[in-house]
Each structure stands twice: as structure tokens, then as C-alpha cells.
Write a structure and sequence with these properties.
Elements: H1 3-32, H2 37-54, H3 64-89, H4 96-108, H5 111-121, H6 130-159, H7 167-170, E1 181-185, E2 188-192, E3 198-201, H8 205-211, E4 217-221, E5 224-227, E6 231-237, E7 240-245, E8 250-252, H9 255-264
Antiparallel strand pairs: 1-2, 1-5, 2-3, 4-5, 6-7, 7-8
Helix pairs in contact: 1-3, 2-3, 2-6, 3-4
Length: about 270
């Protein structure tokens, strides 16, 4: 192998490592920013306490320390799996319930093996009872669904942004969710809606971006703004990030904006 080939291979390895690190950081940021995340942990702690004190599912005969350790491991592991699952699957509000239904199957499927493994880890033999384990998993999942439903409703009630009565309001936009993206065109701005329709508005881009400060969105480059819910995919092309919008244009991300997007977990 020539020196040039070794150098290229080393550079490709470094780029691959950076891409992997960015993806991991983005995943962690999405997990940390899940709506109602403290409620998940509070609900998990309450479930561990309830299962331990009640000796649920024939664990009452176990000594209290082992019972607490068993339920902490089982519920704690599944709680982290759910958080990771939502961070991976959820990109917009409409993704929640499909992710919940699919996750109920995917995450609960190996539960009997987890029960047997944690039991053996603690020196407590537990048989693989698939039917009973899945029934119990259904009950636990129902409790988690209720917690999730409360968390989402509470998050939306507290953080529902108010639409300022500025240029967008006067142009007929009554809901912040109606604005998917904005592209500056000379002295005008083209406003994209989620359904693909657009409006041309005589306004300054900076003024419109300020009106949308409470929305989960970002300036992608000078004169280009997009809501997070409008993003179809973000991909790397010729050493530049490009944001492809649903029913909208593909926008090359500027170097300055890339730093902000990376901190938000978009990249």
C-alpha cells in the first residue's frame, strides 16, 4: 500500500469516526430532550416501589433486597429501552403513537429472557414462562402508555407556543404549525406550508425568524429557515450538510449554522 493510499484510508477513518460521534451526540440530545422525560423516571421509580412492596408476579417470597434489585433491574432496563426507542423513532408529533404501538411489540418480545437473566444474575432461579411474562408486560406497557399520554399532554399544555400577531399573522397564518419553511427572495419571503402550498410575503427574513423563535426550528443558512417537523432527512453531500424538506426545497447548511444544528442534535 502506498503512502497516499494509507493517508486516504486514515482520513476516511477519521471522517467516519466524526460522523459516528455526531450521530451518537445527536441521539443523546434527542433522548435528553424528550417531552416529559422527568415523568418517565418518576413513573419508573414509582413502579419499582410498587412492584417491590407488593411482591408482584410471585416475587413476594424473595428477600426484600433481592426483590428491590430484581425490579430495579427489570423496570430500569425497560425504561431506558423505551427512552432510547423514542429517541430513535420519534421525529415529529405524529410519530409518537406508531412508535408506541411498534415498541410495545419489539421491546416486550424479549422480556421473558430478561426476567430469567436477571433472576439468575441475583441467584434466584426463574423459569421462562412466555405467556405469563407477555401478559405482565402488557399490563406494564399499559401503565407506561398512561404515563406517556399524561407527559405529552402536560408538555404540550405548558410549552404550546403563542403566535405573535406580526407579519405572519397579518398574512393569514393563525397557527405556528402552519409555517414549515421560509426562503428569502429579494425583498420578499416565500413561506412554505406543510401541505406544500406557498405564499409570497413582503417582509424581512430576520423579522419573520424572530416571530418564530418559540418554534422548534432553525436558520439553515442566510435567508433560509425550517421547522424541525418539516425536515425529511439531513444528509452529507460533497462535504456539506443538506436538509431535505417535506414538500419543500433541499437547503445546503452553512458552516455557521452547522455548529448550531449539531448542538441541537439535528446533525
Amino acid at each position: 500500500m502506498t503512502e497516499g493510499a494509507r493517508f486516504r484510508e486514515k482520513q476516511q477513518g477519521r471522517v467516519g469516526n466524526r460522523i459516528f460521534a455526531n450521530r451518537v451526540l445527536g441521539f443523546v440530545n434527542r433522548a435528553r430532550n424528550l417531552p416529559g422525560l422527568p415523568i418517565y423516571f418518576a413513573g419508573g421509580a414509582a413502579a419499582i416501589l410498587l412492584m417491590t412492596t407488593s411482591g408482584a408476579f410471585a416475587t413476594l417470597d424473595l428477600p426484600l433486597p433481592k426483590r428491590l434489585a430484581f425490579w430495579s433491574l427489570l423496570i430500569g432496563t425497560n425504561l431506558l429501552l423505551w427512552i432510547g426507542w423514542f429517541a430513535w423513532r420519534v421525529r415529529s408529533p405524529r410519530d409518537w403513537w406508531p412508535s408506541v404501538l411498534l415498541g410495545t411489540l419489539v421491546i416486550n418480545l424479549p422480556l421473558p429472557v430478561e426476567i430469567a437473566f436477571f433472576g439468575r444474575l441475583l441467584g434466584v432461579p426463574m423459569t421462562l414462562d412466555w405467556a405469563r411474562s407477555w401478559t405482565n408486560a402488557g399490563l406494564i406497557s399499559l401503565a407506561l402508555l398512561i404515563i406517556l399520554f399524561i407527559a405529552i399532554r402536560r408538555h404540550r399544555a405548558i410549552e404550546r407556543p403563542q403566535f405573535p400577531k406580526g407579519s405572519l399573522w397579518r398574512a393569514g397564518f393563525r397557527n405556528l404549525a402552519d409555517v414549515a419553511w421560509i426562503v428569502s427572495e429579494d425583498h420578499y419571503c416565500r413561506i412554505g406550508r406543510p401541505d406544500g402550498n406557498t405564499s409570497l410575503l413582503h417582509a424581512r427574513f430576520t423579522d419573520l425568524a424572530k416571530e418564530l423563535e418559540t418554534v422548534d426550528g432553525a436558520v439553515l443558512r442566510r435567508g433560509h429557515w425550517a421547522a424541525a417537523s418539516a425536515v425529511e432527512v439531513i444528509e452529507r453531500r460533497n462535504r456539506k450538510w443538506h436538509v431535505i424538506l417535506k414538500n419543500g426545497p433541499a437547503i445546503a447548511v452553512s458552516a455557521a449554522a452547522a455548529t448550531d444544528l449539531r448542538s441541537r442534535g439535528w446533525l
